[in-house]
Amino acid sequence: MPNVPSLAGLAVLVATSVGSAQVQPDLARATFDSAWSTIDRTYWDTTFVRGRWRAIHDSLRPVAAAARDDESLRRVLGALVAAPGQSHFGVIPRELVPAPGGGATARGGAGIDLRLADGRLVVWRVDSAGPAALAGFSPGLEIVAINGRSVDSLRQSIAAVTPDGFAADRLVLQIAAGRLAGPVGDSVRIRTAGARDRVVYLAAPSGQVTQFGNLPALAVSVTSGVREVRAAAGGTRRIGVIGLTAWFPAVARDFDRAIDAARGLDGIVIDLRGNPGGVIGMLAGVAGHFIDTAASLGAVRGRQLSMRFAVNPRRVTLDGTPTVPFRGPVAILIDPMTASTSEFFAAGLQALGRARVFGDVSAGQALPSLMLRLPNGDVLMHPIADHLDAAGRRVEGVGVRPDMMAPLVAADLRAGRDGPLDAALAWLAETAQQ
Amino acid sequence: MRTTVVRAVALVSLLAPSVVSAQTAEAILTRFAKTVDPNGKAASLPGFKSTGTFEVPAAGLTGQLMSWQGQPNQAVMTITIPGIGDIKRGFDGTVGWSLDAMQGPRVLADKELAEMAEQSDFAAMFRSAGIRTAAEIVGPATVGGEACTNVKITWRSGRSTTECYSTTTGLVVESKSMQSSPMGDMEAVTRYLEWKDVEGIKMAVRMEITAAGAQQVIRLTSVEIATAPAGTFDLPAEIKGLVKR
């Protein structure tokens, strides 16, 4: 299997602040044709392809041929890839995906993550060493405008064209996140409720910067720690909390090390909140830390692709010492920005009864995709198969529903509490055998 | 991906200009063997070292490839891709294995092991009679504009491949097979596009493999007949740990 990525929301996250060079008609046509024919050849929904795809071609190709700059061409390509109405379609500007060896760097960020809590856009996490922390931002603050653009008006405009409230909320988060990213050194103005704009200068994100094929460079990291939680029956349970920010091979060994360090603990929390997905090939290895059989986490099926996500039980440590996969209870944290490969993982372990899922419904953007370089240098992201989890459920458009819903509460954030994590820890404290 | 790649490398073929009438499957395979090894050197070859590049254009992935193959049936290959790291796969004559950061270490078993063992065997490279149990002509075909004859080969392990042999050169032009993997069986189609003379033997140095909906391209920039340094086929520590169990 090609190591296909499944990384949701990318087009929204990155399609900001890039240049718009002139484009020749021949190149515009060739770029459109390449994108259209690739989807025509690979999109798994053949009913759609046979029914509407040609008509979409005929209506949009003349517009593409008339495009005279990148911006107008990308607008046409955007309309093209929006037509199927599925995730993992996108056009990534070439400026964000230099050719291999082209010195890719991750986009700068404000060091702040946003979420919806109590119906408001709020600060969720703040990188303590990042620029937003220096500017005085803290969890729970309500964001009302970014760069002078009102959050309320953004939500209204999205709601007007996105009747599905869940999808609209997710889009608000993705667009807001996109507005907080850009070239290192650029500034963004962020206004919180009852306060003036604060200027935040974007800085290099924390984590390991990695680039996978035609995807933009991203900063990824694994975090780990141990929490001691009192059980009602008495005694203390030691719970490992391991966070994975994206499924990229650059941090796979870090995840293995975190698991090796957690083997003696009473339970483990895998925090996938905000994790947009990544390389599907990592599923087998990560799931194998918790499952001792070659069970299937789910399957994908496309026109040229049919396979199951088989677990590779991890029966040896990094230094070659025989061991067994972790046998204690496992909790997984998800939220509306948990997408794609993270959803494959959470849905798979949930369906197999191996993990209990906490948090909020995930993004519902769960399709494997490829990234093709188009003639103009932009990258076409396109899904190549449909996905069903281990219970035969479709996650795309639906999301993973937690076993225990624990949506964010702004007051908790302001008080320094992490409600979803606390819920998972409480369950593990009662479930784990000492 | 790795299964397919190993297969492509393991099936690296040899060429010499001979023209033999190809009336039967056996005749076609005999012609192939004589074409690729006209001087009967196969049995005395110590092994091969190959280096080159590996690409998945549909994902923008490009990496470096290095492989060793040793008599009679040892092989190890490493593909190094920026953003992924090393993807390794090998067979030491008994144990077939794979190792990469994404999936972790794995000891191959059942059909997958049998395929790996067979693909690592020098006899398979030359389509020797001892490693296959049957061969039959499927029919004529044209691949990439080249007229060829499809031959279905049943190997000792029970797997089968359908390979198209050029009516002009006797070389294999295309190979189709089902590859076993934990993710399920999947068809792989390998096209052999370019050949190179290596010390009197010609080897395929450019191959395109289509599997799981994506194309992979292997270009070997260097192929040499060589003896693998001691330890080349030793099992990595993580694989040894798995075998100990």
**Of all protein chain pairs, which has the greatest interface, and how many residues does each chain bring to it?**
A-B, 53 and 37 residues
- Helix/strand class of chain B: alpha+beta
- Tell me how many strands of chain A there are: 24
Mean pLDDT of chain A comes to 92
Shape of chain A: globular
Calculate Rg of chain B over CA atoms: 17 Å
Strand content of chain B: over 45%
What low-confidence regions of chain A span 5 or more consecutive residues with pLDDT below 50? 9-17
* Helix share, percent of chain B: 10-25%
**Overall form of chain B:** globular
What is Rg of chain A? 22 Å
- Describe the largest sheet of chain B: 13 strands, antiparallel
Number of helices of chain B: 5
Can you put this structure into words, describing what you see?
The complex is a heterodimer of chains A (434) and B (245). Chain A is α+β, with helices and mostly antiparallel strands. Chain A is 31% helix and 25% strand. Chain A has twelve helices and 24 strands. Chain A has helices spanning 10-14, 25-42, 46-66, 70-82, 131-134, 151-161, 165-179, 252-262, 282-287, 341-351, 410-414, 419-431; strands at 5-7, 90-92, 108-109, 112-117, 120-126, 143-146, 149-150, 181-182, 187-192, 197-201, 208-210, 218-220, 222-230, 236-244, 267-271, 277-279, 296-301, 306-310, 330-334, 356-359, 369-373, 379-383, 386-389, 404-405. In chain A, β6 (143-146) and β7 (149-150) form a beta hairpin. Chain A is globular and about 70 Å long. Chain B has five helices and 13 strands. Chain B has helices spanning 2-10, 25-36, 110-119, 122-125, 237-244; strands at 47-56, 61-70, 74-81, 85-91, 96-100, 104-107, 132-143, 146-155, 160-166, 172-179, 186-198, 201-211, 214-225. A 13-stranded antiparallel beta sheet of chain B has the order 6-5-4-3-2-1-13-12-11-10-9-8-7, sandwiched between helices. The relative contact order of chain B is 0.22. The model of chain B is unreliable at 1-22 (pLDDT under 50). Chains A and B meet through α8, α9, β18 and β21 of A and β6 and α5 of B.
